[in-house]
Amino acid sequence: MPVYVDKPIYEFKGMIMCHMIADTLEELHEMADKIGMKREWFQKNASFPHYDIPKMRREKAVKLGAIEVNRRELVYKMREIREKGNA
Q1: Average pLDDT for consecutive 10-residue bins of the chain (87 residues)?
Q2: Which of 16, 20, 21, 40 is in Cβ range 3.0-4.6 Å of 51 for a Cys bridge?
């Protein structure tokens, strides 16, 4: 399952957050379900569909197969996914 998470460096309400994206929305929501994310937290109206996930859920996503990437790699993946028409 190609799901990607960047580094947890963004602060939000006392938590350290990161972004989670995937090659398809189906894969993204599947991982979100596995790590306990609510669908209402899905950022569908953002510049790219994603979930903002806290550090502890990121660790779980990585254990379940999410690929760790840096910010530059994440942006590259977003472009790649857009070109395929999946976002």
Answers
A1: 90 94 96 97 94 96 97 95 83
A2: 20
